[in-house]
Amino acid sequence: MIINDKYCFAFIHIPKCAGTTVRSPLQQFDSCEGAFTNRVDEHQALGPLDYQHIPLYTLRDFFKPEFEKICDYWSFVVI
User: What is the DSSP letter of 14?
Assistant: First the structure.
């Protein structure tokens, strides 16, 4: 997932849908500085978490600021 605060857009990466091809050129615009790309890490409440493929309900419940941006910004996915 890439969120850009300057241009108010979010790209949500869905596995196996050419997301890496789209994400690569957008990476330079990531206001989250890679926090949600290519990262598997231990989350305090959720345990091991693939930050690149977080479901929207998990974002809503555990990453409220990012979820609000996705709701407010222009968001897109490739399916």
Answer: -
